[in-house]
């Protein structure tokens, strides 16, 4: 068979020839002109069968060219040339030197060339050809994966698709039956089937998840030609059944017995009913219903979705003294179960329930949780009964009850309650303080005659205070009422209104009037509990009064009617021609202040004044101390020089020195400062001791002494020059003219005689001729 295929593959199919005629070819071969003509290759597509069992090499085919030259040779080029495929240089026969596998590579593309052996030049243009490998169906189908998974709802009908398996045959699919795959279930065929496309379907309609949730089947893939000699491919398929709601719940036991105290709160838990539902949790929808008994109004059963349990809860209080035991039947069912999947055993499960009520010492029970009483405000009758409360002991002991007020809003001791529950007022109530008084009371059982037990309950009393007319209406002051001093009669100044602390019921009406009629203002009622203040005569005089205080009386129409007197300040303002205010003092708004507030304000003001005075005195005292401590006189004597001073004691021509001496003898002394020498360190001049020194030497010694004193005294100011000289020289006839050595004041001496001393003393006479404001030292 393979030999026949090989021979068939060597047959040349379409043949290419020269486009020129055969005569032209013969002329070309015999011609000496060597004229070149176009030629073509003469060869075909080549075919070879895969996996040939004959010895290598295997003949593939022949390439032929029209070139007739003894130096021509055939050459192959391409990816697999000279490796897998080789050509005979002389004949053009092509051989395969390896066994070929079509599943690895089905076609090979090569290039054929004819080359001159001597020059190694191409004698023709290269040509590309293809070698095709023929399939021999040498592969079996293989599954794309070893394990497949699928799912299908339980109880599905026959033929319901589950999943799909896939196997692949590597052989050539273009050849009939070479790549066709046939699937077969070899394990689990009673439950599932597979078609030729690999789709797995149910083979029965009774697949019950609760009986078997998963299935494992084996599927075989084989060739359609039935090559039984080779192994087939096998895959494993796991199929899961999806749950549907096809089962009813059943009670875990036939009867349930619960014990519960009688003080169990409403909607508290009495007990739990447990059922079994073999469906998945998402398909469990158990409901519980009362079947027998008359206690549907006493209990209700609530289903918990997560556990499918039924919780029994009371809908009203349990009372041991009235009913000690409850018995009834309950059914459990699932209304969402699909009807066509009903199974034997019925669609309901019934259980008997017994609830035993246990006795508990309970607190007192009020007849009602809230009591509302009404009372008129300011009722002078103390200890007046306003109502009754009632509580009882629900137990068989029926103990006595004591009532105790607990919390009040607003805070206060407003009521007292007798042992029989009668409620009395302790004080009059004011509606303006609070329209409602809310009081929480306790009812406490007595353990014995005078001892309170720990059993108690609470109730609320709301007292509504009915209003009586006990407050007069009060003026609501407008914002800075003012009027121009040139206002015309009838001009509206402001609108006034009033408020009443009493209850403003429909029909309450305020009446406005003035306390006196001799005012320049009048009131006009607006019939909406407001009134307009208007100018009566006009032409106000600011010089007489810048503010008018209008006394307004306001009364209501209640019984009895009440009236209040109010003062409304109105500022008189300067206005321009257009009536616009140009200048106006702020009006004094009358505000009522209590005596206690006035006393508090006065005490605050007095305290502030006393504190301010004490601070001022303390500060002044500190200032005086600082002056006494730091008052070191800083005296700057000024040395007044003259251009002409004469020749000293030796110069007797310029002036007569004897005049000075006579003046001294006649108690006329030079002027001196009004300061004590001790006030300035420069004023205390120590004359140098010793005689016989000249005036110049004595001055030098004095200056050195003063310099030493200035250098060694750290408290002195850092003066750079010495301005004071208290020593005039020992040989001066007039002796010292300085006032620093004077121990007495000369303020009463008349210095007019200096004017007679000549022009040289003119400046001195001017200085001492009038009362000086600053003392000088000369």
UniProtKB/TrEMBL annotation:
CDD domains: Cadherin_repeat (cd11304). One of its GO terms (molecular function) is calcium ion binding. GO terms for cellular component: adherens junction; bicellular tight junction; catenin complex. Residues 69-143, 144-251, 252-366, 367-475, 475-583 form the Cadherin domain. The chain crosses the membrane at residues 597-617. Its main location: other. Gene3D superfamilies: Cadherins, TCF3-CBD (Catenin binding domain). It is found in: Cell junction, Adherens junction; Cell membrane. It is a single-pass type I membrane protein. The keyword Lipid metabolism does not apply. Keywords: Calcium, Cell adhesion, Cell junction, Cell membrane, Cleavage on pair of basic residues, Coiled coil, Glycoprotein, Membrane, Metal-binding, Phosphoprotein, Repeat, Signal, Transmembrane, Transmembrane helix. One of its GO terms (biological process) is cell-cell junction assembly. Cadherins are calcium-dependent cell adhesion proteins. This is Cadherin-5. It comes from Alligator sinensis. The lineage of its organism: Eukaryota, Metazoa, Chordata, Craniata, Vertebrata.
């Amino acid at each position: 068979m393979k030999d026949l295929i090989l021979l068939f593959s060597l047959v040349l199919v379409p043949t290419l020839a020269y486009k020129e005629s055969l005569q032209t070819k013969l002329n070309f071969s015999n011609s000496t002109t060597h004229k070149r003509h176009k030629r073509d290759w003469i060869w075909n597509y080549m075919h070879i069968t895969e996996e040939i069992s004959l010895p290598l090499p295997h003949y593939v085919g022949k390439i032929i060219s029209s070139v007739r030259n003894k130096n021509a040779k055939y050459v192959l080029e391409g990816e697999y040339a000279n490796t897998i495929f080789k050509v005979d240089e002389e004949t053009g026969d092509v051989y395969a030197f390896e066994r070929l596998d079509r599943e690895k590579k089905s076609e090979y593309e090569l290039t054929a060339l004819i080359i001159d052996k001597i020059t190694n030049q191409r004698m023709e243009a290269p040509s590309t050809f293809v070698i095709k490998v023929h399939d021999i169906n040498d592969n079996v189908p293989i599954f794309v994966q070893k394990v497949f998974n699928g799912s299908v709802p339980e109880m599905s009908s026959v033929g319901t698709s589950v999943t799909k398996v896939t196997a692949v045959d590597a052989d050539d699919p273009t050849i009939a039956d070479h790549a066709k795959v046939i699937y077969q279930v070899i394990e689990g065929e009673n439950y599932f089937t597979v078609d030729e496309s690999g789709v797995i379907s149910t083979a029965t309609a009774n697949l019950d998840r609760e009986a078997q949730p998963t299935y494992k089947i084996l599927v075989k893939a084989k060739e359609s030609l039935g090559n039984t000699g080779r192994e087939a491919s096998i895959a494993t398929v796991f199929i899961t059944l999806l749950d549907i709601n096809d089962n009813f719940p059943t009670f875990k036991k036939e009867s349930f017995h619960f014990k519960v105290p009688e003080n169990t709160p409403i909607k508290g838990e009495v007990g739990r009913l447990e059922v079994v539902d073999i469906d998945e949790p998402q398909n469990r929808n158990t409901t519980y219903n009362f079947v027998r008994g008359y206690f549907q109004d006493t209990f209700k059963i609530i289903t918990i979705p997560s556990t499918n349990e039924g919780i029994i809860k009371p809908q009203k209080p349990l009372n041991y003294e009235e009913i000690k035991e409850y018995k009834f039947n309950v059914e459990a069912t699932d209304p969402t179960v699909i009807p066509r999947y009903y199974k034997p055993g019925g669609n309901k499960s019934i259980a008997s329930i017994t609830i035993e009520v246990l006795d508990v010492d309970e607190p007192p029970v009020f007849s009602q949780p809230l009591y509302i009483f009404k009372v008129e405000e300011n009722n002078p009758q103390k200890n007046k009964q306003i109502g009754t409360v009632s509580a009882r002991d629900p137990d068989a002991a029926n103990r006595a009850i004591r009532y105790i007020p607990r919390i009040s809003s607003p805070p206060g001791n407003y009521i007292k309650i007798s042992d029989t529950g009668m409620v009395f007022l302790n004080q009059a109530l004011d509606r303006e303080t609070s329209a409602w008084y809310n009081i929480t009371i306790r009812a406490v059982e007595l353990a014995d005659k005078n001892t309170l037990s720990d059993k108690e309950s609470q109730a609320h009393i709301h007292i509504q205070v009915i209003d009586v007319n006990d407050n007069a209406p009060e003026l609501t002051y407008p914002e800075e009422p003012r009027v121009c001093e040139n206002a015309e009669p009838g001009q509206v100044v402001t609108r006034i209104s009033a408020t009443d602390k009493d209850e403003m019921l429909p029909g309450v009406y305020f009446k406005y009037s003035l306390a006196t009629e001799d005012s320049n203002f009048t009131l006009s009622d607006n019939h909406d509990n407001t009134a307009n203040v208007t100018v009566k005569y006009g032409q106000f005089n600011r010089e007489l009064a810048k503010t008018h205080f209008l006394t307004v009386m306001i009364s209501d129409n209640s019984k009895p009617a009440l009236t209040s007197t109010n003062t409304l300040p109105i500022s008189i303002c300067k206005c321009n021609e257009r009536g616009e205010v140009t200048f106006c003092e702020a009006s004094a708004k009358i505000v009522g202040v209590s005596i206690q507030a006035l006393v508090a304000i006065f005490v605050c003001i007095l305290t502030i004044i006393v504190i301010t005075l004490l601070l001022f005195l303390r500060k002044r005292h500190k200032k005086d101390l600082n002056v006494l401590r730091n008052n070191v006189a800083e005296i700057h004597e000024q040395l007044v020089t003259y251009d002409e001073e004469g020749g000293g004691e030796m110069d007797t021509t310029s002036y007569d020195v004897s005049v000075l001496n006579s003046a001294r003898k006649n108690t006329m002394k030079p002027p001196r400062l009004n300061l004590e020498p001790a006030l300035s360190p420069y004023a205390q001049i120590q004359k140098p001791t010793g005689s016989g020194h000249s005036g110049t030497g004595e001055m030098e010694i004095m200056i050195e002494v003063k310099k030493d004193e200035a250098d060694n005294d750290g408290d002195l100011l850092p003066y750079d020059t010495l301005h004071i000289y208290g020593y005039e020289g020992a040989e001066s006839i007039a002796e010292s003219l300085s006032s620093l050595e004077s121990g007495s004041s000369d303020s009463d001496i008349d210095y007019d005689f200096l004017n007679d001393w000549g022009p040289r003393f003119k400046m001195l006479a001017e200085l001492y001729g009038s009362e000086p404001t600053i003392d000088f030292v000369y």
